[in-house]
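PROTOCOL LOG
Step 1. Enter all chains and additional molecules of the complex.
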Amino acid sequence: MPQGQFELHSNGRREFIDLSGRIRTIVRESGIQDGLLVLYNPHTTAGLTINEGADTDVQRDILDTFARMVPDAAHYRHLEGNSPAHVMASLSGASVSIIVHQGQIQLGTWQRIFFCEFDGPRRRTLRWLLLADR
Amino acid sequence: MPQGQFELHSNGRREFIDLSGRIRTIVRESGIQDGLLVLYNPHTTAGLTINEGADTDVQRDILDTFARMVPDAAHYRHLEGNSPAHVMASLSGASVSIIVHQGQIQLGTWQRIFFCEFDGPRRRTLRWLLLADR
Amino acid sequence: MPQGQFELHSNGRREFIDLSGRIRTIVRESGIQDGLLVLYNPHTTAGLTINEGADTDVQRDILDTFARMVPDAAHYRHLEGNSPAHVMASLSGASVSIIVHQGQIQLGTWQRIFFCEFDGPRRRTLRWLLLADR
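Step 2. Run joint prediction.
Step 3. Record the structure below.
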């Protein structure tokens, strides 16, 4: 059954964690040649995104820009104090879908799949599904 | 044929409407055990998101933050006056994809599926598809 | 095998390019009646979105609002100078999923599928997958 889950730990309050290697391994071990990989984040103060991985400054710039767009120093009603992380979760989205062709996820040259921690450090679980195109 | 549509009514100009219960019913009645549920919003001034449902203040904080990011009091060309709602539709996205396992959508503990009304009140139609993993 | 890719050229630094016609052709030629179309963007300074196509002012308003949210005149670390385009890529997302019913993509009345160029002009390649619901 080509679905499962895996765990990860974030170390900072906000950071990107590159999942591309893990996802490549999952697809390889499944033996599926063509289809769709869906990666799903079940947490409400984190997200998933696909963006540049070569220069880590890009990840920093995205997080810094999100922090300017959704500042800590604004009025929020939610008393836990992590409303900005919830907003960022909706901005980045709860899942990514990536096409599999000839046994490989079809990321672009500079693309990596990132888990976006917006309210860490925490232990997180991610879920994946592989739909074969038969 | 595991696809269909359903209607809903929004009551306010901007609000989140929890669709999790309806989606659980759709998945249960389909009899599908493992696969992917795709929920699709065909409207251009509304969106879909997955976020916390326990404290309704989180929904309010997300809507308020979107309104600060995309203020009504800015210059827009579109003469209908609802450009902010169109921008918010692109920020939240037109669909959500959720993994189904053992007959259940795999939402996280605090996650709910929300229809995001950005230009209500209106009558809206949503479309869904269930892809079985066979 | 219902997957493939196609090329397009952007002409401006930032613009929306309507792909709805191409996608309708792809779905028609596939012969698939019911299922899911996934369109994937492998570039890190571009995105995909679904929004209104009738009044081109809406596209302009979305791009202008994105530029206010992610201004060029802010501090970014990435030395290539296109960090705002990377942020916009994460805001819009790397893929769109659209339900196919009776051989037709189920776009809403006013919806069009847009490629979002955030750092053009460039030659871009997009990838698509059609999952049949059998």
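Step 4. Note key features.
The helical segments of chain B are 20-30, 56-69, 83-92.
The first strand of chain B starts at residue 3 and ends at 9.
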